[in-house]
Amino acid sequence: MADELVDIIDKSENTLSQIMKSGAHKKGLLHKTVIGYVRDGDNWTLVRQADNKQDAGQLVAPVGGHVEAGESDIDALKREAQEEIGVDDITYKLKGSAIFERKVIGRHENHFFIVFEISTNQPLILNHESVATQTYTSDELKLALKDTPEKFGDAFYFVLESFYKNYLPENYANRFI
Questions:
Q1: What is the DSSP string of 91-158?
Q2: For the CA atoms of the chain, what is the radius of gyration?
Q3: H/E element, 63
């Protein structure tokens, strides 16, 4: 995990200070993370996380990473898309933002998620953080969330709860909101 300088922000996205990402995670300080869901019409493409990553072995957004200090959200999204799925030509639509806080793999993550839907005509080329892609139609995704909920990571559930409630099974109990 590369350590990078990030902006510490308040809930209104005002920059309060700067610190290395590892320090932000150690202290649980709020900082920005961009999340990009690859959508092609009715299709969702997710990635299975590598075993050494948060949400190990589970399906999550293909693009996700920290916004570096002074970097714009869009520049971070484009950089992360290049780093994580090997594409440099994306279209994007902002879905919204929400605060996601948890303790995972020895860190206290306190992320201000900035969530986008992205699309590209380029083939996805995964980096070391992911081991496979899985594409679902909306109906297939809803069924998989109902039948095999353990396949999906906590961050994915948080985004669904925040922005895509209609995908959650009827008996789903909110874990984060």
A1: EEEEEEEEEEEEEETTEEEEEEEEEEEEE-SSPP---TTEEEEEEEEHHHHHHHHHH-GGGB-HHHHH
A2: 16
A3: strand 63-66
| Integer Cα distance of 172 and 152 in angstroms | 13
- Both tokens of 81, joined, read 């898309």
Q: Are 61 and 47 in contact (CB under 8 A)?
A: yes
Q: Which helix (H) or strand (E) holds 76?
A: helix 73-85
The string of pLDDT tens digits covering residues 9-44 is 999 999 999 999 999 999 999 999 999 999 999 999
Token code pair at residue 93 = 């639509």
Q: Which stretch of DSSP H or E encloses residue 27?
A: helix 21-27
Which residues make beta-bridge pairs with 109?
102
Return the residue matching tokens 């906590």: 154
Domain at 5-165, CATH homologous superfamily: Nucleoside Triphosphate Pyrophosphohydrolase (3.90.79.10)
**DSSP 3-state of 166:** helix
Picking from 109, 142, 81, 118, the residue whose alpha carbon sits closest to that of residue 23 is 109
